[in-house]
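QUALITY CONTROL LOG
STEP: pairwise intake check
CHECKER ROLE: data steward
CRITERIA: each record must contain a sequence immediately followed by its C-alpha cells, with no blank fields

ENTRY 1 OF 2
RESULT FIELD BELOW
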Amino acid sequence: MKLFKYEEYEVKVAPEALTLGPFKKLWSRDKTKEKEKATNELAFLYFYCDPRSDYQYITDDDDRMEAVKEGIGLDKKWKPDTLMQRAIDFYKTFDTTAALLLRSANLGVQKVRDLLTTLEPSDMKSLKDYLMVMKLIPEVAAMIQEAEKKMNEETEYGEARGSIEKTLLDDGLDDMAERVKQENN
C-alpha cells in the first residue's frame, strides 16, 4: 500500500489516505492542533498491519501488538477501540497476494523455529531431523528474504514519462519482455 510509508524515522501518511473512511475518522476524532493521538494511531496501523513493517516477523497478533505499542510509545493499557479495529480490518484488505504469501511463510518459519526448540537431539532420529532442518535454514532464509524484496518492489511505484505513474502490470510486462529477450539470445 502506498498510502503509508516509513521513512526518515517516521510514518508518512499520504494525504489521499485521509480521504478513506476509517483513516479519516481516526484523524478527525483527534481535535488537537498537533494531531499527536491520530499520528500515533496511524503509525500503529502501519507497524501493526503493513507487510513492510519491521514488526511483521512477530507472527502472533497479540505479541506484535504489544511490541508495536511499546515501540511507538503507546500506553501499555491502550487497546484498539471499535474505530481503530475498523481501521485495522480495512488496512488489512489492502494486502497483496505476495504479502499474504509472505505472512504464511513467516508462520511456517515460526513453526519450524518452535520445532527446533523442542527437538531432543539425544536420539538418532531427532538428531537426523534436526540436522536436516538445519541444512535447510540458509535456503529458507534466502527464499524469505527474496520474497520480502519482491513484495517491497511490488508496493513501490516508479515514475514513467510525464505525470503518469507506472503500474505493477507495466513493471511485470517490462520484466517479462526482458526475460524473453535474454532467452532468445
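ENTRY 2 OF 2
RESULT FIELD BELOW
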Amino acid sequence: MLVAANEPDLKAYGDVAAAMLQRAGMQVDYQAIDAGTVAQRRVSTKPPDQGGWNAFCTGLAGFTFLDPVRNVPLRCNGDKAWPGWPTSPQIEQLRTASFDAPDLAAQRKLAAEIQARAFVDVPYYPLGLGLFPTAYRTDLADVPKGIPLFWSVRRQA
C-alpha cells in the first residue's frame, strides 16, 4: 500500500485504510513515501515486489463525483483508466449512454445504473468523506460556501 507520508490528509487516509485492511485480516505492506514517489509508482503495472503496488489512497474534491462523466476514478476503460486500470464494459456503455441522455430523468436513471454496477465491479473503494472547516474574517464578503475559493472575495464596504 502506497501512502504519501508528506501529505497530512493522504497520510491519515492511508493510516485508516491500512488499519481497516488489517482488521479485515489482510497483510499490509505499508509503504510510507513522499507524494511524488507515490505518483510515479502508481502508474507502474508491475507486481509489488518489482516496484508496483496493490493500493493507494488519494483525496478528490466533491465536484469530481457529481456525475459519471466527471468521475475519473469510475472510468473502467482498462489501460486508459485511472491507476488500477479497472475494466467494466457495462459501466463504460452506461457512461457513454449518459452523453446522449435526452433529459435529466434519463441522466438520473443512467447514473443510478452506473452506481449499482460500480458496487458489482468495484473500480475503486471510497474510504470516506473529509470536511475541511474554514474560517474567514468578518470584514470579507462574497466568500463562496464549500471548497475554499478566493477569486470572488472582497472586503465589505
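INTAKE CHECK: passed for both entries
DESCRIPTIVE NOTE, ENTRY 2: The chain is about 35% helix and 5% strand.
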